[in-house]
């Protein structure tokens, strides 16, 4: 169990870095955004996620990198929704048109409180005030990273509200399992049979469409390099019609000797292979991250669900407990089948 300073925000608040380890896995989390800053597996020389060794990039090019984003992850069209007859006017931080990841002060950009830490777990907490970014209800939220046998990194996000509101969090790490300059040689499998077509602003156009015959078909292992130069991928794959009580397999990502299984309670998985990255600050391996250096696998509700009654609901009632569980289970290199 290690806790160290990680820098100071422009307003003088300190950001802290906590490191936990167990079962051959080591994870470091910073309080800014409750972000997974580094993830290491014994026997592997490189980090498994994209991150930065200092705070500054997280305030610019590294925004959302490894963060817990919300209170509504992904997009809400035009920053507007109706909740129990009340029209919500939400922060429009995506080009002044739509809400993205809970707004300009969403949870992924806030400095959480480091609440508890043991050798193998760390808990962070935040309080989103009533009216924050246009959402009703004060919302306490807690994120617990815990290392379990497997080795597995489990993230449990819980939240509640004192007024009916909307709630949808997601963990926004970019994965790179082989340490290469791109994820071209990664193979991705996702069991989803449908996806959400989107417009130029990445707002869903309507009901789910079959993945068959599209670049969004990952039902069998797909080498990402075969899809990266085609139509840009930044889409929600539809795993289920509603949230689940227990996590189920949502994706398998493999590169070289490292294999990661992602299990989640969430009905959607946003796939985004870092289309916008361009070389800037050095990352964890000492070199800048370019286009397609990592792939984000964001367990979530479906985007724009508050405006789509046929999508899984993001509505949370007064006193109701929201609970999301995501598991990242790694196979040790020595145990991966050839």
TrEMBL record:
<dbReference type="InterPro" id="IPR008183">
    <property type="entry name" value="Aldose_1/G6P_1-epimerase"/>
</dbReference>
<dbReference type="Pfam" id="PF01263">
    <property type="entry name" value="Aldose_epim"/>
</dbReference>
<dbReference type="GO" id="GO:0004034">
    <property type="term" value="F:aldose 1-epimerase activity"/>
</dbReference>
<keyword id="KW-0413">Isomerase</keyword>
<dbReference type="GO" id="GO:0033499">
    <property type="term" value="P:galactose catabolic process via UDP-galactose, Leloir pathway"/>
</dbReference>
<keyword id="KW-0119">Carbohydrate metabolism</keyword>
<feature type="active site" description="Proton acceptor">
    <location>
        <position position="298"/>
    </location>
</feature>
<feature type="binding site">
    <location>
        <begin position="74"/>
        <end position="75"/>
    </location>
    <ligand>
        <name>beta-D-galactose</name>
    </ligand>
</feature>
<dbReference type="InterPro" id="IPR047215">
    <property type="entry name" value="Galactose_mutarotase-like"/>
</dbReference>
<feature type="active site" description="Proton donor">
    <location>
        <position position="172"/>
    </location>
</feature>
<dbReference type="GO" id="GO:0006006">
    <property type="term" value="P:glucose metabolic process"/>
</dbReference>
<feature type="binding site">
    <location>
        <position position="234"/>
    </location>
    <ligand>
        <name>beta-D-galactose</name>
    </ligand>
</feature>
<comment type="similarity">
    <text>Belongs to the aldose epimerase family.</text>
</comment>
<feature type="binding site">
    <location>
        <begin position="172"/>
        <end position="174"/>
    </location>
    <ligand>
        <name>beta-D-galactose</name>
    </ligand>
</feature>
<dbReference type="InterPro" id="IPR015443">
    <property type="entry name" value="Aldose_1-epimerase"/>
</dbReference>
<dbReference type="GO" id="GO:0030246">
    <property type="term" value="F:carbohydrate binding"/>
</dbReference>
<protein>
    <recommendedName>
        <fullName>Aldose 1-epimerase</fullName>
        <ecNumber>5.1.3.3</ecNumber>
    </recommendedName>
</protein>
<dbReference type="InterPro" id="IPR014718">
    <property type="entry name" value="GH-type_carb-bd"/>
</dbReference>
<dbReference type="GO" id="GO:0005737">
    <property type="term" value="C:cytoplasm"/>
</dbReference>
<dbReference type="InterPro" id="IPR011013">
    <property type="entry name" value="Gal_mutarotase_sf_dom"/>
</dbReference>
<comment type="pathway">
    <text>Carbohydrate metabolism; hexose metabolism.</text>
</comment>
């Amino acid at each position: 169990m290690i806790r160290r300073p990680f820098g100071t925000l422009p307003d003088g608040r300190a950001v802290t870095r906590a490191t936990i380890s167990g079962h051959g896995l080591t994870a470091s989390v910073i309080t800014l955004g409750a972000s997974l800053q580094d993830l290491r597996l014994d026997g592997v020389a490189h980090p498994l996620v994209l991150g930065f060794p200092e705070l500054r990039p997280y305030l610019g090019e590294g925004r959302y990198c490894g963060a817990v984003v919300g209170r509504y992850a992904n997009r809400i069209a035009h920053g507007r929704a109706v909740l129990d007859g009340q029209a919500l006017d939400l922060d429009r931080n995506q080009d002044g048109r739509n809400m993205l990841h809970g707004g300009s002060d969403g949870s992924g950009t806030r400095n959480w409180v480091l609440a508890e830490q043991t050798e193998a777990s760390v808990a962070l907490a935040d309080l989103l005030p009533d009216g924050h970014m246009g959402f009703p209800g004060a919302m306490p939220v807690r994120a617990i990273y815990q290392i379990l046998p497997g080795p597995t990194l489990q993230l449990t996000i819980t939240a509640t509200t004192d007024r009916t509101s909307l709630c949808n969090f997601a963990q926004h790490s970019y994965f790179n399992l082989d340490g290469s300059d791109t994820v071209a040689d990664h193979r991705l499998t996702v069991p989803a049979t449908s996806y959400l077509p989107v417009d130029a602003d990445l707002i869903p156009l309507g009901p789910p469409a079959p993945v068959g015959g599209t670049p969004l078909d990952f039902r069998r292992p797909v080498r990402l390099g075969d899809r990266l130069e085609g139509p840009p991928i930044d889409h929600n794959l539809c795993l289920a019609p509603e949230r689940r009580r227990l996590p189920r397999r949502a994706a398998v990502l493999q590169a070289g000797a490292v294999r990661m299984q992602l299990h989640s309670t969430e009905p959607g998985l946003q796939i985004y292979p870092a289309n916008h990255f361009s070389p800037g600050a050095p990352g964890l391996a000492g070199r800048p991250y370019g286009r397609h250096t990592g792939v984000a696998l964001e367990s979530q509700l479906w985007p724009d669900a508050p405006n789509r009654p046929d999508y899984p609901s993001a509505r949370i009632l007064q006193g109701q407990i929201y609970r999301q569980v995501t598991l990242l289970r790694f196979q040790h290199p020595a145990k991966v089948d050839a």
